[in-house]
Write a sequence for this structure.
């Protein structure tokens, strides 16, 4: 076969690359570099986001408080002297303000701190929330009147900003709401130990506050509102979604109708969330007469939004269960329903739970549909316990972020970033739970 | 099977509680409307919740027009009780209201808001007149008997006294009640002052057409409509220090460390100048009460009376401290609320 040997390609070593191999290797190296660059870009973006949020928001978990004794004079707080809370309620927070302010001014004098501030400037250093807190305290416990109590009160947001580095002497110079003199006095009080910045639980527990009191604003109502909505979503979307998926996947005949339903479910998953808000306003509020700004309506709207996600995830995990399991069950005489509930569903459960938790996490971060049903609002009352509480007005975590970014006082920037941190913590927690459940219960075949 | 049982029982509970809610009555006042009024309304709501036994009212924003539209949706517990507005209600809105059964509306004017023109604190300071703004922002200017596209790109081209800085204006979008005041008190006034309006009428336009041409603003990127809130305007100015933004006085008062304010027609926008009416760009702020809800929704009338009380809306109250210009005729407003005087009855 001399002909064949003549037409054979030239013998080459496997260790020497020819031009084609080199080209292929280069292409692969390039692709790897692109892939690596993509990952780096993604990570950089995440790091930038985290840095900006954490640097802006971590300070919201700390708050400055001032401690001073207040003489609760009977003449001002309980003119009738009956210690009757109903009579005492006639003294409004405007009546408590001078009591606080005078006590504060006297305390500064007692500490021997020199200053040249007017009484108005001194009073402005304490938060507008303080008289309200004192009034609530006195009305709850009328026997306090006539005594001297030592109180720890929030200070004004600008003073607090000074201790956090947001307000400086130079900016106070130009700022109409704070004077350098107030900052000097605040520093002196801090040195004397009467003013301190410390961890602030009330950021997570307190309700929202108006634009004049950024220092008092908290996430309490928003967290409860979000929690209630998630309860509603979980209680409705999970059973409905799972039932729909099981029926479609295991029982429904394959015909044109089920095809149409399938296409529509996939489409619904991609519908902009605001559309569900419009639907919610039309159906749940205008037609069904449910109250506005209530977590029940928010939950129902988010249920509609989450359903397609849960159905798609559930169907995928049902499909992943090998047919041999169903056939084995049917083979030993189980009914179709027994095969599904005793064998298929337990095996699909980790996938269903993961899909549900991811759907919930998505719903937790949604603001747009809540705009139209009145949950993007200033709400200060805590909703009651479920089930009544589901019908009380509440706000939601992402809504609180949105609201605070619109406020004029710069202190709310810090608050908004703090709220984002809380929201992120919840999301990370939920996603970690999803991964944990999947790892724990996952079966391989 | 347990899952099936669970889902059925959950659905049953949801259905039962939903029907229970329809019977349940609302005990909090529900307010919606202007984002300019929102900070004032939330201050009042907060103080109201602290000092009264009623729950704190729920205050939504969304803009004057949105608020009034929802206000006019009808009477009943699932409609709002009060609409906040940074402009007075329009005839067409009153008609819509009447169609839906909202016939008795109490108009409450609780103070004035100044609209200020502010720029970055480190930039040059400005002293504007209305005609400067018209000449800077109009889409077309009359030149020698014909309308030509606005050629001005920097402020010194508008008027030689102004700093040589590129024109970059951030004005409220049409969704805002503030825009209406800006259009009428600044642009239209400037159009008349600069003689442009007279020139247009000479060109054969009737008055309506001329006014319309006056208020048509350029769309070549020199002027930007801000549909968000003042915080967005402030962010734009931080990003572009040459920008000039339109703000509410209260917002400016909260950010004096970053913004400097321009005078308008030689008048500085102070509370005193706005209250006396010498500062030309201010507007009254309103809220509208659905009279049919008084006595049905607990605390509604108390909230309204508290809002306009001297303690709150007076010149030394918390609203004034936040930047509201107190209404000099507050006593009359208080009487309007106390006697529940509706708009038709005036």
């Amino acid at each position: 076969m001399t002909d064949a040997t003549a037409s054979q390609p030239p013998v080459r070593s496997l260790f020497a690359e020819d031009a084609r191999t080199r080209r292929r290797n280069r292409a692969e190296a390039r692709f790897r570099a692109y892939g690596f660059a993509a990952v780096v870009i993604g990570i950089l973006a995440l790091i930038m986001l985290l840095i900006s949020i954490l640097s802006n928001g971590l300070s919201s978990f700390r708050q400055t408080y001032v401690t001073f004794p207040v003489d609760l004079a009977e003449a001002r707080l309980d003119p009738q002297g009956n210690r009757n809370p109903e009579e005492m309620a006639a003294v409004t927070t405007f009546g408590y303000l001078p009591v606080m302010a005078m006590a504060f001014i006297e305390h500064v004098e007692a500490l021997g701190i020199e200053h040249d501030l007017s009484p108005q400037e001194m009073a402005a250093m304490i938060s507008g929330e303080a008289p309200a807190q004192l009034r609530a305290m006195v009305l709850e416990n009328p026997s306090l009147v006539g005594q001297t109590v030592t109180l720890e009160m929030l200070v004004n947001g600008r003073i607090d900003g000074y201790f956090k580095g947001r307000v400086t002497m130079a900016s106070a110079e130009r700022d109409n709401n704070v004077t350098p003199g107030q900052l000097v006095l605040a520093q002196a009080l801090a040195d004397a130990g009467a003013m301190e910045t410390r961890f602030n639980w009330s950021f997570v527990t307190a309700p929202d506050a108006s634009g004049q009191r950024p220092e008092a604003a908290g996430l309490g109502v928003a967290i409860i509102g979000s929690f209630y909505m998630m309860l509603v979503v979980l209680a409705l979307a999970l059973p409905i979604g799972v039932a729909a998926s099981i029926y479609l996947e295991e029982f429904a005949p394959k015909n044109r109708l089920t095809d149409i339903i399938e296409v529509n479910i996939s489409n619904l998953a991609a519908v902009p969330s605001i559309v569900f808000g419009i639907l919610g306003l039309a159906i749940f509020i205008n037609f069904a007469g449910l109250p506005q700004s209530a977590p029940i309506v928010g939950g129902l709207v988010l249920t509609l939004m989450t359903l397609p996600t849960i159905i798609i995830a559930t169907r995928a995990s049902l499909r992943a269960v090998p047919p041999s399991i169903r056939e084995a069950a049917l083979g030993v005489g189980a009914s179709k329903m027994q095969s599904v509930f005793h064998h298929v569903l337990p095996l699909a459960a980790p996938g269903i739970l993961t899909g549900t938790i991811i759907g919930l996490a998505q719903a937790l971060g949604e603001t747009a549909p809540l705009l139209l049903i009145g949950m993007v609002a200033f709400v200060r009352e805590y909703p009651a316990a479920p089930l009544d509480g589901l019908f009380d007005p509440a706000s939601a975590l992402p809504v609180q972020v949105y609201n605070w970014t619109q406020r004029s006082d710069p202190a709310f920037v810090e608050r908004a970033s703090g709220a984002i941190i809380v929201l992120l913590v919840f999301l990370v927690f939920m996603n970690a739970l999803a991964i944990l459940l999947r790892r724990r219960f996952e079966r391989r075949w | 099977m347990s899952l099936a049982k669970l889902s059925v029982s959950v659905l049953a509970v949801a259905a039962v509680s939903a029907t229970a809610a329809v019977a349940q009555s609302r005990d909090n006042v529900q307010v919606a409307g202007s984002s300019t009024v929102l900070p004032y309304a939330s201050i009042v709501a907060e103080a109201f919740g602290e000092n009264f036994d009623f729950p704190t009212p729920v205050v939504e924003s969304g803009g004057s027009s949105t608020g009034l539209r929802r206000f006019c949706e009808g009477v009943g517990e699932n409609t709002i009780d009060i609409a906040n507005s940074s402009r007075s209600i329009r005839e067409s809105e009153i008609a819509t209201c009447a169609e839906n059964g909202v016939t008795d509306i109490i108009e409450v004017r609780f103070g004035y808001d100044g609209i200020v023109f502010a720029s970055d604190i480190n930039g040059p300071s400005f002293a504007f007149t209305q005609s400067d703004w018209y000449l800077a922002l109009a889409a077309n200017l009359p030149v020698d008997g014909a309308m030509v596209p606005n050629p001005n790109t920097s402020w010194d081209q508008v008027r030689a006294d102004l700093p040589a800085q590129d024109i970059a204006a951030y004005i409220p979008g049409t969704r805002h009640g503030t825009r209406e005041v800006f259009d009428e008190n600044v642009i239209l006034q400037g159009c008349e002052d600069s003689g442009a309006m007279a020139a247009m009428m000479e060109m054969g336009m009737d008055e309506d057409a001329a006014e319309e041409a006056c208020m048509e603003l350029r769309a070549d990127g020199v002027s930007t409509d801000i549909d968000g809130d003042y915080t967005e305007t402030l962010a734009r100015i931080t990003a572009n220090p040459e920008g000039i933004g339109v703000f509410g006085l209260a917002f400016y008062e909260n950010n004096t460390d970053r913004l400097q304010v321009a005078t308008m027609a030689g008048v500085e926008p102070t509370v005193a100048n706005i209250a006396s009416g010498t500062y030309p760009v201010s507007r009254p702020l309103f809220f509208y009460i659905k009279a049919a809800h008084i006595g049905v929704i607990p605390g509604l009338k108390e909230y309204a009376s508290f809002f306009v009380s001297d303690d709150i809306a007076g010149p030394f109250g918390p609203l004034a401290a936040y930047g509201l210009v107190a209404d000099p005729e507050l006593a009359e407003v208080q009487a309007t609320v106390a006697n529940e005087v509706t708009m038709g009855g005036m």
Remarks:
- The mean pLDDT of chain A is 89.
- Chain A has 20 helices and four strands.
